[in-house]
Amino acid sequence: MGHSHADDGHSHAHTPADFGRAFAIGVALNSAFVVVEATFGFLYGSMALVADAGHNLSDVLALLLAWGASIAAKRPASERYTYGYKSSTILAALANAMLLAVAIGAIAFETVQRLLEPTQPEGMVMVIVAGVGIAINAGTAMLFMGGRGDLNIRGAYLHMAADALVSAGVVLAGLAIILTGLWWIDPLVSLGIIVMIGWGTWGLARDSLRMGLLGVPRDIDVGAVRGHLASLEGVHDVHDLHIWPMSTSETAMTAHLVMPGAPCSDAFLREVADGLQTRFGIDHTTIQVEREPHGHDPCETGC
Fold it and tell me: What pLDDT is recorded for position 241?
């Protein structure tokens, strides 16, 4: 007959933190900087500046995606979407990884073109423009530092932090060109930017794909959760344990606890849920209590 259903214990988390102001500031500053950086890059022949502008453009789109997802995640649940739109943050993180992959291809194409048709870039222009980029990107990254536990917000933070480092690389390239006059330093730095973007993109894609497949979040040890549940007083066995992300900031879990003859109450279920939230960061917990060992047909279930 399968498993009978018992009374369930639920633990519900707080709503995601609001980073609306951070997103608005980040989008405005970076949109303006993309126009400035791309313009100076093309006017003064710096592929490194153009590459950085392309990366910044992808970051603007990434911020918009993450912002939209964070707003959607706060929408209430409905009859059709009983979890609400929380998982939209996972989709946004995956879309951002794909967007970065497109940016890598575009920058690589332009860099190859510059290697085939070399021009002498203006080192001082590179230093000044990229220096402004360091300030804008580092400042924007700081706005998202408080939400790095959320993959969606972490994606925005990493985009901005990486951009600050990339801009620092462009500044160094500009100084090197001023001192040596070697034009190939510019496309070489552009290739370095591609490598850096690629490394960050792989990590973001890997984590967001895992979440999209409802994989256990990286920071949760399933064995430790099972051991914790099995150590509870009166619990003889734990089975049908499932842990999955509801969004980039919330985790859900279901489990069956075999407790033959042991007393059970709402207070017990609340204590279990609170312990899982405190120790493992699991926000939404559903526990089913069974009186008979797994595999038997129970004649009595519940608390």
Answer: 95
